[in-house]
Amino acid sequence: MKSEVCNMASERQSAHYKPNIWKYDFLQSLTSKYYEEEEYYRSRAEKLKGDVKHLFVEAVEVLAKLELIDTIRKLGLSNLFEDEIREALDTIASMENIIENLCGAEEDLLYVTALYFRLLRQARL
Questions:
Q1: N or C: which end of the chain has fewer CB within 10 A?
Q2: CATH number for the segment(s) 24-123
Q3: Dist CA 64 CA 43 (whole Å)
């Protein structure tokens, strides 16, 4: 009985799928306001990137730079500003009196130190 079952050819039922209605020409004919204004959005994004790069130059205090880097990381934009982040962290690390430069007030010392080391760890420096 076992050999009879194995010798039987099983026929697959064909699925009668309907042809796809999404033809290439149809998809290309669809438009959106974003597609029409693509150049505007590209130039706007580049301008905003330039503004953020300018913020790195404007941030003079160590705490301001660290918080800027932290905010950029939290927004998920750190991959766009890797060079600026690395340069800012290298500049902070090269300071002679780093603890004195980290902050002016004693109560901020723990916060700033923890933030600095977390950013260094995330940057893998």
A1: N
A2: 1.50.10.130
A3: 27
